[in-house]
Amino acid sequence: MAKLTLNGAEIEVADGAQLVEVIKNTGEFISNLCYVDGLPPYAGCRTCVVEIEGMRGFQLACTTKVTGDQMIVRTETPELRSTRQAVLSLIMSYHSDRCLTCHRIVKCKPGDTCLRDDTVTHRCLTCSKNYRCELQTTCEMLEMAGYEPWDGDERTYYNLPQPPADQGNPFLEFDPQMCIICTRCVRACDEIRHTGAITLAGRGFSTRIEFGQGGAVDESNCDFCGACIDVCPTATLMEHPNKWSATQTERWTATTCTQCSVGCSIHVGTKKGRGVIVKPDTTANPVSRDQVCVRGRFHYDAIKHSARLTRPLLKRNGGQDDSSWEEAMEYTTARLIEIREANGPDAIGFLGSPLATNEENYLLGKIARAIVGTNNIDSSTGAVLHAASGALRAAFGSEVLPADGTRVATSKTLLVVADDLESSHNVYALRAKDAAVRNKARVVTVSSMWGELNDFAEVWIQSAPGDEAAVVAALDAATSGGDASQGRSLLSPEMQTAFDNAVAVLTAAKEEGGQPFSAISGLSHFGAAAAGSIVGSLANITMTVAGADAPKALFVLPQEANGWGMRDMGGTPEDLPGYRPAGDEGSRTELQRLWGAQLPAKPGHTFEQMIGNGVKALVVMNDNPLMLAANRDAVSKFLVGLDFLAVIDSVPTATAALAHVVFPDTGYWAKEGTTVSADRRILRMDEAHHPRGDAQQGWRILADLGRRLAERTNPGELRIGYAEVGELMDEIASVVPLFQDATFKEMDSGMQQHFEGSRASNRARVQVPAVHRNGGFILTTNRSLYMSYEGAAIGSPDADPLHREDCVRMNPADAATLGVSQGDVVTITGNSASVQAPVDITAAVQPKMLWLPLYFDGGATGALFEADSPVASVEVTK
């Protein structure tokens, strides 16, 4: 630590700290229009000049580090102010500055009128960043009103033609007229996001910021993460949706993004009760820190509020009609009781969801087990996660690992197995890039198709689609000194060389010891056996390479947001809450004591087992099996054949369209409760805006249903009524050991779960499933980056508003053979189903391989996949 005197006050700071950050952290104002916290200084704006005793002239606070003791710094002297004004005047001579330097600006407050010049278009009043602009604030602090030394210069902003604004995409607006060439956006895109979509073009006076080769933003490789918006000090880069509403944001709410299992911390800004803007929140999840992806930043606005469910629906009169809550609840209660009495508890099934909160999944399981009396509780996405969890248990004795996601960025060697981590778990891909760029990590990737992370990898093993499990098993064998010939032989000669190089990288990591190693598995949506094999092999590899550190080195990323939390809450037929085996008498007795009700003695059916096993009624909480499950035809027949189907959801999904009763849930940003991230952090979700119409939060709907069912079944001393979500959170903390510190008043959002149990490492026995091919095309799928779940769930043609992914990817050689051109529509046939899609011709996929987004056409992709197959054998016709 070092002592520093700042404007007469002595403070203690870290030795070597950047002076500009020290000054800002004390609350003192310092102009820093080009500095980005955490990045090397650019020293372009020159406005952060300070006076340091003992140093000649003025120094730049951004390039100065605190060293030693007794550094004496002054930030406010007449000379400093004059210098800053002169420097800032040069910057503003090329910016629209009418309001910023107007001598009557004080009389215009609060900035909603203009008393001087109503013919000028670009002024603060007409700017969507009015009162959120860093340049505006800096001008006020430096008292620039009336300071115009360049007046009369022919080269100023108002005397030169300005480039037009780019407003042609749904996410981001780029107005180069507002740019002061601070280059923050260039450096954020390059050094923080490692994308390089923004560049400096031109020379000297003609220097400009450009996207890509100078074309439209959406024609560049920009992935619309919004990092450039966060650092832009002016209105050059702005959010496109609600940009005017966001200028008058009334409230900011800290909550958690549920677009994937990274669990990024976000702030939702609201106005008049609706969300109008999203920004990263740096306080809760250290993995995401100040970053989100396009889904987290913009998908809050993916569908119109009018598209959401706002009233209960009852199937009658040949359709679904509006109903009162009382009528819908009483009908649902009566039908479930009637079916239970006629056919027994196991005739009723329950589907929870990784798209629901922990509290909702917990209550659903409590109703199923303690009131209805069945362990038939699962999710349509549960099979893959169950297989992966089984592999973790076999290897470590627990599926709850102490792996901290912040480790990824600091690793020296990384092994990543995922279809396209950039699309499915964007911020984890970003942290892997951080390791490669900043930490010079050696990255090995295994995937059948190209993803952006592969460009950062030292070795990319491109397996044939569906052979990933065999290749990773071969890597396991090779690194542990076994026979890898069988898996290695599946690769092309070029990829066999890549395989050998990967083994060399992993072996070197093992021999180095003490150097952080991390392995990442981005779970696929289909193919449980293959997923289990991959996780088991990765567990073995981490034991070989990382030794005793293995449990901290393996990251298994669930397909959807709250997969781990769903399992924590007992959202599986084999486990009660807290991973108590459902068939174990001691575990059952313990939970019976905590709940005050009898519980069923035998495990229940998985979702796949419910089909054709006598289930006659189904209660679905935020799940959508017609979109998320494979073998869609069989799923559809099952749902249609049910005697009773009740759905709780916020949007009218394909599954909800078949329901006898639909209860309107709130959207993600109107929910309260908790969720669990991929690296086992318990994260808070807070209500950013109120429910629409008669919609209610899912936990309230379940509590009401549970109370009515309990009144008719008399389950003992069971508690099922809760006035606030905090009461439910506190109960979970008393029932589920992993949540014991997550009480409503005391929980620290972002804390990691700590499982107190055996983590003894045992090599997992891996069985690689066979992949059946018919000689045609092999279709793969995964969660894409741009396509909105909610938009796809309601069949919106703009589920992918950029239309980058509403297509099937095909290799150029296959397109030539079929006579297919870019954009042509082809028919893909497999598993007795057909899907039509336009073609995107790209070398990102191999010959005889196709890729179609999981959410394409409302989940039509799942119809082409057979149950438990990671890939689909299909035919393609023009």
Structure, explained:
There is one protein chain. α7 (325-343) packs across α23 (698-713) and α13 runs parallel beside α16 (528-546). β22 (575-576) and β23 form a beta hairpin. It contains 26 helices and 35 strands. The chain has a 7-stranded mixed β-sheet, with helices on one face. Strands 30-34-31-33-32-35 form a 6-stranded mixed beta barrel. It has a 5-stranded mixed β-sheet with strand order 2-1-5-3-4, with helices on both faces. It is an alpha/beta fold and 878 residues long. Helix content is 29%, strand content 17%. The longest helix is centred in the middle third of the chain and has 20 residues, at 493-512.
Mean pLDDT: 93
> Major sheet: size, sense and barrel closure?
7 strands, mixed
How many beta-strand segments? Answer: 35
Share in helix? 25-40%
User: Any low-confidence stretches, pLDDT <50, length ≥5?
Assistant: none
Number of helices: 26
Terminal CA distance reads 69 Å
Structural class: alpha/beta
Strand content: 15-25%
Q: Could you say which overall geometry the principal axes of the C-alpha atoms support?
A: globular
Side by side, the strands of the main sheet go 14-13-26-25-24-15-16
Radius of gyration: 29 Å
Explain briefly what this protein structure is.
By secondary structure, this protein is α/β, with parallel strands linked by helices. Helix content is 29%, strand content 17%.
